[in-house]
């Protein structure tokens, strides 16, 4: 039992650092794949409560900030840290 109690803080600390990342396509157009890549990122608490000042992760913002006028592809990357903090990033490619 003493060994379990010594390992418990280590196991709990490791559990809090667990996270996963997934990326998937949102849409694609018939435009040629360009050389420009734009991103827009926002953070959420518990996956739904927006964190102020983290911005939005809209397609328009990602394209505007990188100077893309002809969008080729749009992907969304989601990173989740133990369900407490969720980040969403929109990745836009084009010219």
Q: Averaging pLDDT over every residue, what do you get?
A: 88
Query: Ends: how far apart?
Result: 62 Å
**Shape type:** elongated
Helix coverage percent of residues?
Answer: 10-25%
Strand order of the largest sheet: 1-4-5-2-3
Poorly predicted spans:
none
Order of helices and strands: HEEEHEE
Note the beta-strand portion: over 45%
User: Total number of β-strand segments?
Assistant: 5
Number of helices in the DSSP assignment: 2
The largest sheet is: 5 strands, antiparallel
Quaternary organization: single chain
What structural category characterises the helix and strand content? alpha+beta
For the CA atoms, what is the radius of gyration?
18 Å
Explain the overall architecture.
The longest helix is centred in the N-terminal third of the chain and has 15 residues, at 2-16. The termini are far apart. It is built from 2 helices and 5 strands, in the order αβββαββ. With 95 residues, the protein is an alpha+beta fold. 24% of the residues lie in helices and 45% in strands. Strands 1-4-5-2-3 form a 5-stranded antiparallel sheet. A hairpin with a 3-residue loop joins strand 4 (71-81) and strand 5 (85-94). The relative contact order is 0.29.
């Amino acid at each position: 039992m003493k060994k379990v109690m010594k390992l418990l803080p280590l196991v709990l600390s490791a559990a809090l650092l667990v996270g996963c990342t997934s990326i998937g396509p949102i849409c694609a157009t018939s435009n040629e794949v360009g050389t420009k890549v734009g991103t827009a990122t926002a953070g959420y608490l518990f996956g739904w409560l927006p964190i102020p000042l983290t911005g939005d992760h809209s397609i328009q913002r990602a394209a505007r900030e990188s100077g893309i006028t002809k969008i080729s592809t749009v992907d969304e990357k989601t990173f989740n840290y133990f369900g407490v903090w969720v980040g969403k990033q929109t990745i836009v490619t084009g010219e």
